[in-house]
Amino acid sequence: MHEILSAARMRAADQATIAGGIPGIELMEAAGRAVAEAAKAMAPDGLVHVLCGPGNNGGDGFVAARLLAEAGRPVSLSLLGARDRLRGDAALAAARWTGPVHPAGPDLPAAALLIDALFGVGLDRPIEGLAAEIVAAVNAAPAPVLAVDVPSGLDADSGQPTGPVIEAEATVTFFRKKPGHLLEPGRSLRGTLELAQIGIADAVLAETGIDGHENVPALWARALPRLTGAAHKYTRGHVAVVSGPATRTGAARLAAGAALRAGAGLVTLASPGSALLVNAAHLTAVMLARMDGPGDLSALLADPRYTAAVLGPGMGLGPEARALTEAALAAPAALVLDADALTQFADDPDRLFSAIAARPAPVALTPHAGEFARLFPDLAKLPLKTGRARAAAERSGAVLVLKGADTVIAAPDGRLAINANAPPWLATAGSGDVLAGIAGGLLGQGMPALEAAAAAVWMHGAAANEVGPGLIAEDLAPALRPVLATLIDRNGRRT
Ligand SMILES: NC(=O)C1=CN([C@@H]2O[C@H](COP(=O)(O)OP(=O)(O)OC[C@H]3O[C@@H](n4cnc5c(N)ncnc54)[C@H](O)[C@@H]3O)[C@@H](O)[C@H]2O)[C@@H](O)CC1
Ligand SMILES: Nc1ncnc2c1ncn2[C@@H]1O[C@H](COP(=O)(O)OP(=O)(O)O)[C@@H](O)[C@H]1O
Ligand SMILES: [K+]
Fold first, then answer.
1. Which domains, and CATH codes, for the chain?
2. Ligand 2 center from residue 466 Cα (angstroms)
């Protein structure tokens, strides 16, 4: 159920199902029924006003209106465009509606609920003219809005408004979620999301292919590190985190603490001599090693017990910092490169990519949009966030974590997950450092890179939800405990 389908693949799934012998009107009846049920739950009484568009999204609206009326609810309906222009299943659905069909306009009745069945995945241009006036009126109306499939005006693939767009309290979509339900601002515009099954068989996915998955534990839970009675700290991995200079040490400590909480057996902060005392003053379970340049870091990471390293948080730019990252790239450990460790390669991203290609252990890159644009200036212009992440993973040979409210995780082989559990209070200084640490902690325990990165992003969001508003980055690592408890039981088994 967690596969994601683009509008084109969803159309292919509809068509394959109809070609397989299930009439389109049956799918539409099931879709309209799901919408009617959601409408009853949202507004137990009062008038429901259904706004129908000229395509099959409008057809779903006609079905919902009929079923609500049959259930005894007061229903009114308006249609954008002429009734005799309706085609196919939508025309059939409209023929089954026996109530009046009002011409759609910005004058809306005082309703308990508005159903937006104007445009779905068939939207092919920005909404304008009369339809735009209707959208504005719907958004200004006091009644809550239930969107059919997608809020009208939203691009189902990008999550971007194409122009005027409906702001919905809730959306009912069919068969599988679309990228635009998870990518911002679509995730905010669609309100709560219900997924309804309408008679399309899961097997159709083998034919259509998928556009990725929603980032849920089912994707990676089986790959989580497994604790057994025979575990000792070295079997749980040793993660090195590179500290910045004396005036910028906090970010690396946040990452180190998070790596330990994520289950790494040992975490060592590799600190410049000048920053040893300030780091020592703040550390207990995290260990400290003196590291005064790339030679020291190479020597440290040459110890094969170091299974992962995290570089970037608070690290700084310039040739010395860059030389540290080069040393880590030449070492055998898995790597998380974040923040400054990415920006260091802005002048020569290909140098980073060839170093990644030359190493046996995996690399995860965790840029926010600004860092991404420095490494992938051409890809940053691609219209879809999913497309940007996928192309960058392919080019870099690394697992790409393109951060934001709607973080996208992509592997070089094309696998992709969109994360949708992060609350807005995660947007606070240092929270990215914690994410890098969690990813390092999971990689260090031997988790495969895509799974480790996706799990880290999900745990980060779940920990933020545990904490709630008011969160500061320091709160995140402790909040991993209840999150891990939902994933791993006390006997070390994955739940
Ligand atoms: N048989 C099927 O394929 C099923 C389709 N379903 C519904 O059908 C929807 C897709 O239906 P359609 O492909 O007919 O597409 P839509 O109903 O989303 O919209 C397409 C219609 O709107 C017009 N249009 C597009 N953008 C416009 C704009 N900006 N201004 C004015 N007119 C515009 C198009 O010319 C076309 O007439 C889905 O979102 C879903 O709600 C469901 O009923 C399930 C079954
Ligand atoms: N509006 C938001 N909603 C949810 N999560 C967000 C939002 N904005 C940022 N985040 C998350 O917060 C973290 C911020 O990381 P980053 O940009 O590197 O900041 P910093 O360097 O201050 O830690 C990322 O994990 C990102 O996905
Ligand atoms: K709609």
1. 7-211 (3.40.50.10260), 217-487 (3.40.1190.20)
2. 16
